[in-house]
Amino acid sequence: QVTLMESGGGLVQAGGSLGLSCAASGSIYSINAMGWYRQAPGNQRELVAIITSEGSADYGDSVKDRFTISRDNAKNTVTLQMNSLKPEDTAVYYCKADVKNTRWDYFGAYWGQGTQVTVSS
User: Per the CB 3.0–4.6 Å rule, which of 12, 28, 31, 99 could disulfide with 16?
Assistant: First the structure.
């Protein structure tokens, strides 16, 4: 019912920058929080950043002051600007959105397929 399409992953050297984008499409009445999570091999999926529809943002401790999340409510998109990247930021990054399909539904969580970010030392 809802598709999240991520783009922008890739390979970057340590200290570099990279931007990720995610666009939600499909049966969407409204979107509450949108965010980014990441999962490195052998690790659990962790929160990177999350932003409400009002624009209030929160970040994982390891990315504070380096990453910035933003969203465009009219376009149902969320972006993540990643600066001062470190090798430990290497992971698959997943977009997540809490979506209400109709005015009568509860919010449900939808995930993107993930995009690889690799930071070389």
Answer: 12
- Of 45, 40, 47, the closest CA to residue 64 belongs to 47
Strand partners, 23: 5, 77
Residue pLDDT, tens place only, 15-61? 999 999 999 999 999 999 999 999 999 999 999 999 999 999 999 99
Contact 55, 69 (CB under 8 A): no
Taking the C-alpha atoms of 2, 8, 36 and 12 in order, what is their torsion angle to the nearest 10 degrees? 160
Measured between alpha carbons, how far is 18 from 9 in angstroms, rounded to an integer?
7
Distance CA 33, CA 55 (A): 9
